[in-house]
UniProtKB/TrEMBL annotation:
<dbReference type="InterPro" id="IPR029767">
    <property type="entry name" value="WecB-like"/>
</dbReference>
<dbReference type="InterPro" id="IPR003331">
    <property type="entry name" value="UDP_GlcNAc_Epimerase_2_dom"/>
</dbReference>
<protein>
    <recommendedName>
        <fullName>UDP-N-acetylglucosamine 2-epimerase (non-hydrolyzing)</fullName>
        <ecNumber>5.1.3.14</ecNumber>
    </recommendedName>
</protein>
<keyword id="KW-0413">Isomerase</keyword>
<dbReference type="Pfam" id="PF02350">
    <property type="entry name" value="Epimerase_2"/>
</dbReference>
<dbReference type="GO" id="GO:0008761">
    <property type="term" value="F:UDP-N-acetylglucosamine 2-epimerase activity"/>
</dbReference>
<feature type="domain" description="UDP-N-acetylglucosamine 2-epimerase">
    <location>
        <begin position="23"/>
        <end position="363"/>
    </location>
</feature>
<comment type="similarity">
    <text>Belongs to the UDP-N-acetylglucosamine 2-epimerase family.</text>
</comment>
């Protein structure tokens, strides 16, 4: 039995780790241990409940106005103790959160191998996204196995001197999750979404990046206020629980006709809202991966992205947070059917729904139990 300890602490991590944990349950030869940090609290556990996944440990470290230093030191100290007592064969961390970096560092201090799920994404700007770019880069230096979602991510790792024998191109587990959550016959549980007129053009919005807190959220909100003047649209803004974001969104948009400020939704609610939206405005990394699979154009509210594959494929466009540019690009997609169709053709460079199985195959290969691994290849 390979004892696998999965460490994560935020909602996006949970969504992407859930299909891997479920696949591990089906496979013989694995003992799965789930250790949460609680970097997010209710948002995290709501996802796990959605997928019927339990956990073995929870640091429950979230506090009001928590700092990056608090998260880092709390995860490092807490996870070091758990790893020392559990003695897993490998610790899995995901992506670019502070939990991932500190969890990998704790495993390194305990001389325990680290597997990095969603490895190799880069912007090459350490402050964009902040602190995610450095979290992910530092985790790569600590990891023993690198589960890269794309060829491009693999190339980034190779350029940094990571051994090719330790890199496995798997696709992204978020596509695995989408295949189980989004369906054409889904019925919403949220009382507002039950009443939405989906014959209108729905603009779905999310925004939460630290680099957008100072001015970006305000400028994004001003753009939404102008777009809401169109009678053919309804804007559904899933407002992040960060008090600064909520205050700014409400200051500009509260009471605006055709703008609906909702809180965070469950995973299935979010994925199925995405599937029914006309276009999506977001600064989220995960949504840049999810929406193309669903055939939904994405306008990314950032200046750079560590997920260039969808930009290169023409299904995602970087627009930043400039108010006028957001209005112009969104209006173009709403008014120009050809432009819309070019971005809404579906298909994803990020996976085929079998990434979780490939990751487990790679772990078995690493431990000498299996010798076959078939990499993910994007077929346009």
């Amino acid at each position: 039995m390979i004892r696998v300890m999965s460490v994560f602490g935020t909602r996006p991590e949970a969504i992407k780790m859930a299909p891997l944990l479920l696949e591990m349950k089906k496979r013989r030869g694995f003992e799965s241990i789930v250790a949460l940090t609680g970097q997010h609290r209710e948002l995290l556990k709501n996802v796990l409940n959605d997928f019927s996944i339990g956990w073995d440990f929870d640091l429950d470290l979230m506090q009001g106005s928590q700092t990056l230093s608090h998260i880092t030191t709390s995860v490092l100290e807490g996870m070091s103790g758990i790893i020392s007592s559990v003695r897993p064969d490998i610790v899995l961390v995901h992506g670019d959160t502070t939990t991932s970096f500190a969890g990998a560092l704790a495993a390194f201090y305990e001389k325990t191998p680290v597997g990095h799920v969603e490895a190799g994404l880069r912007t090459f700007d350490k402050y964009a996204p902040y602190p995610e770019e450095m979290n992910r880069t530092l985790t790569s230096r600590l990891a023993d196995l690198h589960f890269a979602p794309t060829d491009g991510a693999e190339e980034n790792l190779l350029k940094e001197g990571i051994k090719v024998s330790s890199i496995f191109v798997t696709g992204n587990t978020v596509i695995d999750a989408l295949k189980t959550t989004a369906s054409s016959d889904y019925r919403f549980e949220d009382e507002f979404l039950k009443k939405v007129d989906f014959s209108k053009d729905i603009i779905m919005v999310t925004a939460h990046r630290r680099e957008n807190l100072e001015h970006g959220i305000h400028d994004i909100s001003m753009a939404l206020k102008v777009l809401a003047e169109r009678e053919d649209v309804e804007i559904v803004y899933l407002v992040h629980p960060n008090p600064k974001i909520r205050q700014e969104a409400e200051k500009v948009l509260k009471g605006t006709a055709r703008v609906h400020l909702l809180g965070a939704l469950g995973t299935r609610e979010t994925h199925n809202l995405m599937a029914r939206a006309k276009i999506i405005l977001t600064d989220s990394g995960g949504i840049q991966e999810e929406a193309p699979y669903l055939g939904k154009p994405v306008l990314v509210l950032r200046d750079v992205t560590e997920r260039p594959e969808a930009v290169e494929a023409g299904v995602v466009r970087l627009v930043g947070t400039d108010t006028q540019r957001i209005i112009t690009e969104a209006s173009r997609l709403l008014d120009d059917q050809k432009a819309y169709s070019e971005m809404a053709r579906g298909g994803s460079p990020y996976g085929d729904g079998m990434a979780s199985g490939r990751i487990l195959d790679a772990i078995l290969t690493h431990f000498g139990i299996e010798t076959s691994f078939e990499r993910f290849t994007y077929k346009k």
